[in-house]
Design a protein that fits this description.
There is one protein chain. The chain has helices at 10-21, 39-51, 65-70, 98-107, 113-119, 131-141, 163-174, 194-197, 210-221, 225-235, 239-246, 252-268, 271-282, 286-307, 318-327, 336-351, 356-370; strands spanning 28-32, 78-81, 151-156, 180-186, 201-204. The chain has 2 domains: 3-206, Rossmann fold; 251-373, Up-down Bundle (Zinc Finger, Delta Prime, domain 3). The longest helix has 22 residues, at 286-307. The protein has a 5-stranded parallel sheet with strand order 2-3-4-1-5, with helices on both faces. The chain is built from 17 helices and 5 strands.
Length: 374
């Protein structure tokens, strides 16, 4: 992947290129920032630039043997680690899913965990980076490089690494073999285990700037400038959120309709229909449940800002705005923090494999009380 194929992020690109020119490539780096900002794409472009034998001033050459192999993600000195699932008759390591990974990244490197797990048919299973993966990393990095100056290990979502895997990696992260580069790509550095975080140089990747994202959307989807600008504003620099706003067949409709139903049923204290809502939500799978709660938190924020007379900061699409014109009156200083805490608590328990019926029942009945406290 070339830097020119990464949307926006001009400042970060120049900083990364400068580290190579000045021979200041840190052995362990953490790229972190919001989803849809292009962190993974940047990590691959950076690795390709380091390995390129015909570097240009501002990008890889794209023509040397190394670049050709990077363009297919098959360079022998490029390794990937990412969350996988157990079972399916495969070892619980990334190499078991590498063909699916290459297919997904080459199609579009802007995706999130839920998209990846759907791609590999995870169903209700949650992806993680397990202890067997750590042993594979140590084994691979103990070998000499095949062609390039650096062995590069890109770890996508290190926050999904369990303690057993992290503990096995501490020494090699602190004292890696010569000419070894770890690039950790995280959504939130706060969720990365402190022992891992302390051994990597952090680099914050911001959301994509509106000018670059709108130009890309016009090129990719053929939308006009006005629509592209509106989508950029509502997606807050998140590429796949922007795509979701344009693509009407995505999960947006599901999340929006369920949020509206939850709030209306809670306010009306409609226990019978709420039980049906909880039953439906409990059966959709944990990753989609977490995605819904994330969406609910975004809607909560947007409605609070609308109530606070700051609609331009709400980043809501028109369909959400139409609903929120009335609903925002029920999200005030008196209850917004408590509702946010309940949603966070639900996400926490889902993440830890709690019973979804109990979790969503508790959330629903608590909302019945909190919405009346506006």
């Amino acid at each position: 992947m070339l830097f020119s194929e990464v949307i926006g992020q001009q400042t970060v690109k120049q900083q990364l290129i400068q580290t190579v020119k000045e021979n200041r490539v840190s052995h362990a780096q953490l790229f972190y920032g919001p989803q849809g900002s292009g962190k993974l794409a940047l990590a691959i472009a950076y690795a390709q630039y380091i390995s390129c034998t015909g570097k240009k001033t501002d990008d890889s050459c794209g023509n040397c043997p190394s670049c050709h192999k990077y363009s297919r993600l098959v360079h022998p000195d490029l390794h990937f680690v990412f969350p996988v699932i157990s079972g399916q008759g495969k070892a619980s390591v990334s190499d078991s899913y590498i063909d699916a990974w290459r297919e997904m990244v080459l199609k579009n490197p802007y995706f999130n965990l839920n998209m990846w797990l759907n791609h590999i048919g995870a169903e209700n299973k949650q992806g993680s980076i397990m202890a067997d993966e750590a042993r594979e990393i140590i084994r691979k990095l103990s070998l000499k490089t095949f062609e390039a100056e650096y062995k590069v290990m890109i770890v996508w979502l290190p926050e999904r690494m369990n303690n057993a895997a992290a503990n096995k990696l501490l020494k090699i992260l602190e004292e890696p073999p010569d000419k070894t580069l770890f690039i950790l790509v995280a959504d939130t550095h706060e969720d990365v285990l402190p022992t891992i975080l302390s051994r990597a140089q952090p680099r914050k990747i911001p959301a994509i700037d509106s000018e670059s994202l709108s130009a890309w959307l016009m090129k990719q989807f053929g939308v006009d400038q006005a629509e592209a600008i509106d989508v950029c504003r509502m997606s807050a620099g998140n590429y796949f959120e922007a795509c979701n706003h344009i693509d009407a067949s995505n999960d947006f409709t599901f999340n929006f309709n369920n949020f509206v139903a939850l709030m209306r049923l809670a306010y009306a204290k409609n226990v019978g229909d709420m039980v049906k809502w909880v039953s439906n939500m409990a059966g959709i799978g944990r990753e989609k449940q977490k995605e819904f709660i994330e969406y609910a938190l975004r809607m909560l924020r947007g409605n609070f800002l609308m109530n606070s007379k700051l609609p331009d900061l709400s980043f809501l699409v028109q369909q959400e705005v139409d609903f929120s014109k009335k609903f925002s009156a029920f999200i005030t200083n008196n209850n917004v923090e408590a509702i946010a805490n309940e949603l966070d608590k639900a996400a926490y328990h889902i993440e830890r494999n709690g019973n979804p019926k109990i979790i969503f029942t508790d959330l629903a009945f608590t909302l019945m009380v909190l919405l009346r406290q506006a």
